């Protein structure tokens, strides 16, 4: 049996984990030489951590990605001291580090309400400056989501996430035949022969209702936000949490996990995801795998198997679907290679997208009509 194919139509998602912004403090206001009046200072630009914001939302809401604070008021006979310009705020999620374009850290946003000053406003004109104002600070800054790992393991309890991490890396997480063996994330590193390392976060098991804080709930889902890609792990023979909860087949598990992610934050589904079908050493595994394969090829058609409100709005399309056995090691080497491939493809795409974006910005800054250069005759 070899089924390590792609069940994929949309190749990669568009999860945003970093963002480059143009920020400019406001210019100061003019002073008033006749009466010694002082212009108002320009407004400052701040990045502020706020709940329920994502980098993607900032990108969508401000496609130009320019944040410019207000200009200070000029000094006048009525108000010798001009008013300060209005501050501009960039609301961002917490778990962000704010850096300059060259990578120097300006500050970090770790919890809601944290603020980082990214561009100072110019001074208002006063006696000391001959009543002339100064311009505000201008900068390109980057907001980088602080990731805990490249890959995050997502699955129902007992799917074998910790066993898989053990098979892939040197990590030694706790493994148990009871649900919720893993209670907090553990990071393992997959080592490759050329010394490349990829970090994998073993996360607590997800259960139906996690988005409303059942099981490990939000605490767990928060960690999923901070990994570059997802690796869904299902038991090929299905899963039942307890005697009084329904049995879920592998296909149902995939959809229910998708639904939980969707209900918590739809954007999580735009991360590239690999599907690992574990426990291929079990006696009925081959038959169950064939069934799952067919169902994944026609996800919509098989959704009647699920309760209506558990059907996800959009189905996950995996970059790779890989049957393995964490116990026997079957498929593990291949999975290791696919993980690397998936991350590298995504990195290339992200770099290409960034280059394109920079080019677009450069084009915007260059005037449309080129000026003639000295010594070079301009075309008649
Ligand atoms: N037969 C078989 N059993 C496996 C395999 N992988 C894991 N198991 C068993 O499944 C049970 C659960 O494994 P864990 O690795 O603890 O599962 P988990 O997904 O980390 O579980 P939680 O931490 O509770 O979410 C253990 O008894 C493992 O020995 C496999 O490939 N084949
Ligand atoms: Mg575990």
From TrEMBL:
Nucleus found in the keyword field: yes
CDD domains: Obg (cd01898)
UniProt keywords, alphabetically: Coiled coil, GTP-binding, Nucleotide-binding, Nucleus, Ribosome biogenesis
Pfam families: GTP1_OBG, MMR_HSR1
Cellular component GO terms held in the UniProt record: mitochondrion; nucleolus
Signal peptide, first to last residue: none
Keyword rRNA processing: no
Domain Obg: 13-148
Annotated GO MF terms: GTP binding; GTPase activity; magnesium ion binding
GO terms, biological process: ribosome biogenesis
Compartments it resides in: Nucleus, Nucleolus
Coiled coil: 275-302
Chain ranges of the OBG-type G domain: 149-344
PROSITE patterns: G_OBG, OBG
InterPro entries: G_OBG, GTP-bd, GTP-bd_Obg/CgtA, GTP1_OBG_dom, GTP1_OBG_dom_sf, OBG_GTPase, P-loop_NTPase
Family: Belongs to the TRAFAC class OBG-HflX-like GTPase superfamily. OBG GTPase family.
Designated name of the protein: GTP-binding protein 10
Organism of provenance: Chanos chanos (Milkfish)
